[in-house]
Design brief:
Helices cover about 50% and strands about 15% of the residues. It is α+β, with helices and mostly antiparallel strands. It has two domains: about 150 residues; about 90 residues, no CATH class. The radius of gyration is 21 Å and the shape is globular.
Length: about 290
């Protein structure tokens, strides 16, 4: 099966100056289009799926905040909540291409854990896809159903969280830094001291903040011009994590709380709407 984008983790070396660039890609298979998946999905769901995929690991798992997803797409937080729910509704052959678990961390804190399934025709690193059976014009193949089937709030699972932490390492943080730097500034960042870089990322970011590490790195680069830029240091560097982390973490935590409150409010609205629909159905039956 042919793919339209070469997607992997690779290093590119500029023979002119010896500069090494780390890149991370997502494979998008042509079957995503030839089966009618994208056409049935629509622009909003497709864009949301690609934004999620930019965070996923080899297993299709990721846990971005709604703020991060909204920023990637360029929409309001309330809008991304609607888009995510529409994507979670979407099914192929009765199977969801994306599912979500809401991890209850206690004290009103709920985090979304997403799984992008091989049926999505997206893969990363050594990940694989599964074929979509049937003709794309068969309306029974691609449908939308109740989101509740794929959005379940479960208790905090320490084993799950520990596994998530182990998947993130200093190389992951460096890749996020390099990708975000190139996206923001349009040029590649040169790592001049790899061992020192790894030490800073591990000791200053990953070890003290394992659950926020990826967000810290991305936020540091995106917010640098607004919050940290000065004449001596016009652009971000790995060294900034030696002093800037404590200024970034409160901002991320505040955004998470706002996102969680919005998600909980949305869930309550969905439950209320469902209960009202059930009551109306009963009244209609009695009539």
């Amino acid at each position: 099966m042919d793919n339209i984008f070469s997607v992997s983790h690779n290093k590119e070396v500029d023979l002119g100056n010896g500069e090494v660039t780390n890149n991370v890609f997502v494979r998008v298979y042509t079957s995503m289009f030839t089966t009618g998946l994208v056409a049935s999905m629509g622009a909003n769901r497709f864009t949301t799926l690609m934004a999620l995929a930019s965070f996923m690991d080899e297993n299709g798992e990721c846990y971005p905040t709604q703020t991060q997803l909204a920023d990637r797409i360029g929409v309001h937080k309330n809008t991304i909540n609607k888009y995510v729910n529409e994507l979670l509704d979407f099914q192929v052959n009765g199977q969801h291409i994306v599912t979500r678990q809401k991890i209850n961390k206690g004290q009103g804190k709920i985090f979304s854990f997403y799984k992008i399934h091989p049926l999505s025709q997206l893969a990363k690193f050594q990940g694989s896809i599964s074929q979509i059976e049937g003709h794309s014009n068969d309306e029974s193949l691609i449908t939308s159903k109740d989101t509740n089937a794929s959005a379940v709030i479960i208790p905090d699972n320490k084993h799950l969280n520990n596994n998530q932490d182990k998947k993130i390492n200093a190389n992951d943080l460096l890749s996020v830094f390099l990708d975000t730097y190139r996206e923001v500034y349009g040029v590649n960042y040169v790592v001049d001291n790899y061992p020192k870089t790894m030490t800073i990322l591990r000791s200053k970011v990953l070890k003290p903040y394992p659950e926020l590490a990826l967000q810290i790195v991305e936020t540091a680069v995106r917010e640098y011009d607004k919050r940290f830029k000065n004449a001596r240091y016009p652009r971000p560097s790995i060294a900034m994590f030696s002093w800037a982390v404590n200024q970034i973490v409160p901002t991320i935590q505040e955004e998470q709380e706002i996102t969680e409150q919005a998600e909980q409010a949305s869930d309550l609205e969905e439950v209320a709407a469902q209960q009202m629909a059930e009551k109306m159905a009963k009244l209609g039956g009695m009539a």
